[in-house]
Design goal:
The complex is a heterodimer of chains A (265) and B (113).
Chain A (H helix, E strand, L loop, with lengths): L12 E4 L4 E2 L22 E9 L2 H16 L3 E7 L5 H12 L5 E7 L4 H7 L5 E5 L8 H8 L9 E5 L16 E6 L7 H4 L1 H6 L2 E4 L12 H11 L4 E4 L8 H10 L9
Parallel strand pairs in A: 4-7, 4-8, 5-6, 5-7, 8-9, 9-10
Antiparallel strand pairs in A: 1-2, 1-6
Helix pairs in contact in A: 1-4
Chain B lengths: L1 H19 L4 E10 L6 H12 L8 E7 L1 E5 L5 E4 L13 E5 L3 E9 L1
Parallel strand pairs in B: 1-2
Antiparallel strand pairs in B: 1-6, 3-4, 3-5
Helix pairs in contact in B: 1-2
The chains are: A alpha/beta (265), B alpha+beta (113).
């Protein structure tokens, strides 16, 4: 966010790991005289009918990304969760298990730091970090810019780790095939009820960190019931990215899921 | 906080439309927001003021037209107004599924030449 007025006029920083090159976004400094007048169209005023989606630009860019993914048979997944649910650990473990079996790439989204991209870089897969500054979500334009910095081979799985936030990323289509929402037992089983928009927008849910279940009061059956209430179509994986328990089903799904645009055999 | 991104999108779209029409400045912006769109009207108004500064829409009035949410009960299939993303059917207690009310649309702008 802009330091001067708190507005969001700032571009995301995109860093290709291994290159050390960061593109710096533009800040703007403004004159902050703002006085609302509440005018009606008066003398000489004209009314223009617009009737357009407010997020038309993001929707169009997301469609552009989606066409790009379909053309290159790339399965793009948008991973969303609250901070600390284990998105990066799930990515690391997934890459460790699947690397070599099929091409993978990662786009990391965080407000600040290259820490997550550095973790992914150690696994050896291509990774680009998007820093949103004060932005609370990735948008389709950031993904478009990141895609220009990523070499993706046909059939790749592109794993996009969104900013840790269960609210805002629900509204912004990136062109992904599916949103994967990740929750963990330390957050409590009622997350789906508290943040229904995200659980409605997602088609996959990963309940991570199940190795912690013996130490917590988390009721797994109740959590599943809440998920079902909010979105009966959710496909649920229950696993621990740390211990590896339950991981096989998730890996199998990821390896066999058809990228959009793939010709049916 | 996504209201800031949305406010910026509204200002960009309005300025683009006004520019195409050869207008000098924007005086009024009308936006339709559905009850289930996930956008807080107060937060959007607050953000709009900041987002419109130093643009053609500076000092313009943001009019938010709130549209009702429409839901269908997954059990009895009754149609009811819905104001929250997660609601129970007032008739049978079933889960309501959103069917309408996610609108987020720039309806019209008023401009001076």
């Amino acid at each position: 966010m802009c330091d001067n007025c708190g507005c969001g006029h700032q571009e995301a920083n995109i860093t290709v790991m291994g290159s050390g090159v960061a593109k710096t976004g533009q800040d703007h400094a403004g004159d902050h005289a703002a006085d609302h007048a509440g005018d009606q169209a008066g003398e000489g005023g004209r009314r223009l009918a617009v009737e357009q989606e407010v997020l038309a630009k993001n929707i169009a860019q997301a469609e552009h990304n989606r066409e790009h993914f379909a053309r290159h048979r790339i399965l793009a997944l948008n991973l969303v969760s609250s901070p600390g649910a284990g998105k990066t650990t799930l990515l690391e473990r997934t890459i460790l298990e699947l690397n070599g079996r099929l091409p993978l790439a990662v786009i990391e989204g965080d407000q600040q730091t290259l820490l997550d991209a550095q973790r992914i870089e150690r696994t050896g897969v291509p990774v680009v970090q998007v820093n949103t500054g004060a932005g609370c979500h990735l948008d389709a334009e950031m993904i478009h810019r990141a895609l220009h910095r990523l070499e993706l081979s046909a059939g790749s799985r592109l794993l996009i780790e969104n900013v840790g936030n269960l609210v805002c990323p629900a509204m912004f289509d990136l062109g992904e095939a599916a949103k994967v929402v990740i929750i963990s037992p330390t957050e409590g089983e009622d997350k789906p009820l508290k943040y229904p928009a995200m659980f409605t927008a997602a088609s996959i849910c990963v309940i991570n960190k199940i190795d912690l279940l013996p130490y917590l009061d988390f009721d797994l059956a109740l959590c599943r019931q809440y998920l079902q209430q909010v979105n009966p179509d959710l496909q649920i994986f229950t696993l621990s990215a740390k211990s590896g328990e339950g991981l096989a089903d998730w890996l199998e799904w990821l390896a066999t899921a058809q990228p959009p645009g793939a010709a049916a055999v | 906080m996504h209201e800031m991104s949305i406010a910026i999108s509204i200002v960009e779209l309005a300025c683009q439309q006004a520019g195409t029409a050869g207008a000098g400045r924007i005086t009024r912006v009308e936006v339709e927001v559905g009850a289930l769109a996930g956008v807080l009207a107060d937060s959007l108004r607050f953000c709009y003021e900041a987002a419109s500064r130093d643009t053609m829409a500076a000092d313009s009035e943001l009019v938010i037209i709130e549209l009702p949410g429409d839901g269908e009960c997954a059990s009895c299939h009754g149609r009811r107004d819905m104001t929250e993303a997660l609601a129970l059917c007032p008739d049978c207690g079933g889960i309501m599924r959103p069917r309408g009310g996610r609108e987020l649309r720039l309806r019209a702008i008023e401009v001076d030449d």
